[in-house]
Amino acid sequence: MFYVSAESHHSFLKAARLTGIGSASLRTVPTNNKLQMQEPALQAMIRQDREQGLAPFLVVATAGTTNAGAIDPLAGLGAITAEEKLWYHVDAAWGGAAALAPELRPLIDGIHLADSITFDPHKWLSVPMGAGLYLTRHRDILGNTFRTQNAYMPRDAAGLDIVDPYQHSMQWSRRFTGLKVFLSLLTAGWDGYAAAIGHQAAMGQLLRNELHASGWRIENDTPLPVVCFSAAGLDAQSIVRQIVESGQAWISTTVIAGRTVLRACITHYGTQPEDVRALVSALNGVAVPV
Q1: Alpha helices by DSSP H, the chain
Q2: Is the backbone peptide bond immediately before 130 cis, with ω within 30 degrees of 0?
Q3: Does the pTM exceed 0.85?
Q4: CATH topology (fold) of 189-286
C-alpha cells in the first residue's frame, strides 16, 4: 500500500496502474483546510492496513501542489515514515524551486528527510519541456534496479569514474535532456533563479492583495504564486473563457473542496505589477453572474 493526500491523488493514480501495483493499492489520506495531508489520519490508515495483513511501503508528500500550491507537513511526515520504516518520497515537481529562494526555503523544511524527490525544471525554472529530475540519497538503488549487461552496448566508459545513463534508468537510448537544464543554470545562475522565484512569489502575493481589494475571495492558503479565487454568484467557466479569448492572460478553473473556482499561476519571470493589475482589471470587467 502507498499513501498520498487527497489533493494529489490524481497525480499518482497513473503510477499505480503503470507499475502494476494497481489503483486498489493507492490510499488517499484526508487533508485539512489548507489542503495538507493529515498526519493522524495517515498513521491510523497505516496501522489499520497492517492489522488487515496488508503491506504499507511508501508515503508520498507534496511540496507545492500544482492545483493550489499546498505543501504537506514534510518534517512530520518524515518522522512518521522513519518510525514506520516506509520509503518517503516528496513530489516537489512544481514547488521544489522554493528551495532556491531564501525567503521561501523555510516552506519546505523537512524535505531533506525524503528518501527520494522529484522536481521538474521545466515548470518553475522555465527550462524547455520536458526536463524532470529524480533525486535520491540512496546511491545504489538506481543501479540495483536498472543495471544489466549486454554484449552490444558500448564499453567506452569502462574504467572511468562515470556511469552510463542506461545503467541507472529505464531508457536504453535517450536525448541529452540535461543539457537544457545545465545551460539554463549557466545563464541564470543560482542567484538569478533565487531572484526570479522570489519575484514571482511577490507577484503572486500582489495578485492576492489586488483580488481581495476588488471583492474576490481567495480559496487557497499558500505563499507560492498560485492563486485560487472565486466570487459568490459568478460563473467561473464563463469568466475563464472570456479572459483567455481576450488574449490578455491565461487562467483556468480548478476544484477545491468540491467547488469550481478560478486559478491563476505566476509562471513567467517577466511578470510585472502592471501585468497583475491588468489581469485583475480584466477579471472585474468580465465577471458574469450565474
Answers
A1: 9-18, 39-51, 74-84, 121-124, 141-146, 178-213, 236-246, 273-286
A2: yes
A3: yes
A4: Aspartate Aminotransferase, domain 1 (3.90.1150)
